[in-house]
Design a protein that fits this description.
With 98 residues, the chain is mainly alpha-helical. The protein has one domain. Helix content is 50%, strand content 4%. It has 3 helices and 2 strands. It has a two-stranded antiparallel sheet with strand order 1-2. The longest helix has 23 residues. It is elongated, with a radius of gyration of 15 Å. The protein starts with 7 loop residues before the first strand and ends with a helix. The N terminus is likely disordered.
């Protein structure tokens, strides 16, 4: 099961996630680039960490999607949803302005 969202970039073998093509190093909140965003400039300083957290999110979301398709038990889905939320939080806590 793959979420449907026209703003998402689809890559074979991966769930749909928001397109990040316009988010380059140095394009962050308050850096004068003219794009409204809540991303922090630290993304450019820790690009590898940002990509690692993004990969973790994709992996956890794909696992959740597979579990839904396999009709997993609700308690297992709930636990996996927690893993997805934690992967979101891992990125937002470090790279997004409040």
């Amino acid at each position: 099961m793959t979420p449907r969202n026209s703003r998402c970039a689809r890559q074979p073998g991966r769930p749909r996630t928001p397109a990040l093509g316009g988010l380059h190093r140095g394009l962050a909140a308050g850096d004068g680039h003219g794009i409204e965003t809540r991303a922090l400039a630290v993304i450019g300083d820790d690009w590898a960490g940002f990509e690692e957290r993004q990969a973790t999110f994709r992996r956890e979301a794909a696992t959740l999607a597979e579990m839904v398709e396999d009709e997993a038990e609700f308690s297992d889905l709930r636990r996996q949803m927690g893993a997805v939320v934690n992967s979101c939080r891992g990125c937002h806590d470090n790279y997004r302005a409040d």
